[in-house]
Amino acid sequence: MLLHDILGRAFSFDTPPQRVVSLVPSLTETLFDLGAGDSVAAITNYCIFPPGLERPRIGGTKNPDVDAIRELAPDLVYMNLEENLERQAKLIEQFATVFVTEPKSIADVVALLTTLGAIHRCDERAATLVSELRHEINQEPQDLFTFACAIWKQPWKWCGGDTYLSNLVTAAGGMNILQQTSRYPSIELETVVALKPNVIFLPDEPYAFTTDDAAEVERLSGARVIGPFPGHLFTWHGTRTIEGLRFLRTALSASA
Q1: At 179, is the pLDDT very low, low, confident or very high (cuts 50, 70, 90)?
Q2: 155 and 76, same domain (yes or no)
Q3: 145 phi and psi angles, rounded to 5 deg
Q4: In this structure, is residue 75 part of a structural domain?
Q5: Per-residue model confidence as pLDDT tens digits over 87-143
Q6: In Å, how far are 148, 160, 175, 186, 197 from 191, measured between CA atoms?
């Protein structure tokens, strides 16, 4: 069976990979949750799940040590279109298979879990995780609400409508007031506040928003401010998507 990455390239994995390097923290967690952790030979400095993970670390997502990866002789390297750099991918492709991902929606995460399950012959576990994810998706949304989610300050940057994060919150009943913008537009806080979102989210990554930031945003906007909270709940895809949806429903219920 041929499997395709986000670039449309076809791969045939006649046997499951035995030596995998993951340059995507969310995929590292997902591989272990799938039961494919034994195949993971190296990870990035930012791979924090599962906790206490002991694997060689080969740098960051933007600046991995390509020579160290080469020495590990991997048969597969996972990368992400947005999180990793193309020039790094081209170097790694000289000695290893590179499989590129980029989920932009929960539906994409369902497909990703299924694909990873097929690659690593963990189909049964993948089906279980997909079932858990669909259960969370199918929970009745709470009261509909409008929202904005900041990802940076100085200048203020926000999540547009075509992002994974926006899709995640939409699944919980949200409507992004910046739905018509793409990616991560730079917009002054006062302009966003004037659009009167019901909820403003302040994750703690990639920008480390503080409780003082939350208090200031709440004062200026009158909106419910949720945060700061672990940003990986909103930005990591894979099995972390399940945790993200659970967090959203709890946080929205508590702040209602």
Answers
A1: very high
A2: no
A3: -150, 155
A4: yes
A5: 999 999 999 999 999 999 999 999 999 999 999 999 999 999 999 999 999 987 777
A6: 11, 14, 17, 11, 11
Asked, for residue 26, whether it belongs to a domain, the answer is yes
The pair of structure tokens assigned to 89 is 């991918």
Tokens linked to 237: 């895809």
pTM of the entire predicted model: 0.95
Which domain range does residue 168 map to? 145-255
Question: Amino acid letter at 220?
Answer: L
Count of structural domains, the chain: 2
Are residues 99 and 159 part of one domain?
no
Close Cβ partners of 90 (under 8 Å, ≥ 6 residues apart): none
Give the start-end residues of each E strand in the chain: 2-4, 10-12, 20-22, 40-42, 76-80, 98-101, 145-152, 157-158, 174-176, 199-203, 224-229
Q: How far apart are CA 142 and CA 171, in angstroms?
A: 10
| pLDDT tens per residue across span 207-250 | 999 999 999 999 999 999 999 999 999 999 999 999 999 999 99
